């Protein structure tokens, strides 16, 4: 059954993600591992569940269609100080991960994360360092992700992005025109 994990007596788990197929798969996988799962597809629904029935565990996507998953983290942290919260980010964004941990997330993971990664993060003891990832992003990919993020934050303005990254505009245009590295 699920004796390989020590979930404690309260196995309530809130999953908040607007990627419906991912949410369904993850909910099934976590139920198989002994969690009592509740799901939400929006910040509003996540906050409602966190307020009414604050779970022992939560996995919350950072970017949701109706806002920021950190809003759900804050509500849950207020309602239940001992909740173990893992934030998922599709952007490997260091700044947002730091913000998530500051307001009370236990850990954060970059998508795509599978159920085993998530359980390890949820059940890790404070101070335990997670094992190194099996297939981490290459340095080229990390650089590309960073450039994409700054580009998005500058409302896709190439000149402004180039200025902020301290690079030549044409160099940036060439990078943006290429596919993402592996």
From TrEMBL:
Keyword DNA-binding: yes
One MF term in the entry's GO annotations: DNA binding
Location of the Response regulatory domain: 12-126
Superkingdom of origin: Bacteria
Gene3D superfamilies: 3.40.50.2300, Homeodomain-like
Pfam family, one: Response_reg
Keyword field: Activator, DNA-binding, Phosphoprotein, Transcription, Transcription regulation, Two-component regulatory system
Modified positions (4-aspartylphosphate) in chain numbering: 61
InterPro entries documented for this protein: ActR_PrrA_rreg, Bact_response_regulator, CheY-like_superfamily, Sig_transdc_resp-reg_receiver
Keyword DNA-binding recorded: yes
GO BP annotations listed: phosphorelay signal transduction system
PANTHER family associated with the record: PROTEIN PILG (PTHR44591:SF14), STRESS RESPONSE REGULATOR PROTEIN 1 (PTHR44591)
Record-linked NCBIfam families: ActR_PrrA_rreg
Reported function: Member of the two-component regulatory system RegB/RegA. Involved in transactivating anaerobic expression of the photosynthetic apparatus. It is a transcriptional regulator that is responsible for activating expression of the puf, puh, and puc operons in response to a decrease in oxygen tension.
Protein name stated in the entry: Photosynthetic apparatus regulatory protein RegA
Organism of origin: Sulfitobacter aestuariivivens
Phylogenetic lineage: Bacteria, Pseudomonadati, Pseudomonadota, Alphaproteobacteria, Rhodobacterales
């Amino acid at each position: 059954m699920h004796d390989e994990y020590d979930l404690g007596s309260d196995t309530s788990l809130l999953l908040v993600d607007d990627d419906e197929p991912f949410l369904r798969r993850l909910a099934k996988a976590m139920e198989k591992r002994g969690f009592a799962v509740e799901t939400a597809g929006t910040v509003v629904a996540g906050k409602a569940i966190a307020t009414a029935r604050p779970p022992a565990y939560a996995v919350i996507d950072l970017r949701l269609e109706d806002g920021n998953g950190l809003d759900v983290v804050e509500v849950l942290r207020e309602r239940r100080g001992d909740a173990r919260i893992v934030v998922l980010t599709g952007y490997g964004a260091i700044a947002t991960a730091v913000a998530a941990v500051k307001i009370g997330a236990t850990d954060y993971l970059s998508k795509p994360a599978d159920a085993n990664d998530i359980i390890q993060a949820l059940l890790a003891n404070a101070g335990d360092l997670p094992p190194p990832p099996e297939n981490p992003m290459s340095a080229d990919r990390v650089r590309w992700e960073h450039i994409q993020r700054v580009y998005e934050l500058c409302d896709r303005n190439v000149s402004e992005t180039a200025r902020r990254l301290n690079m030549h505009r044409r160099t940036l245009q060439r990078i943006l025109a290429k596919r993402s590295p592996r």
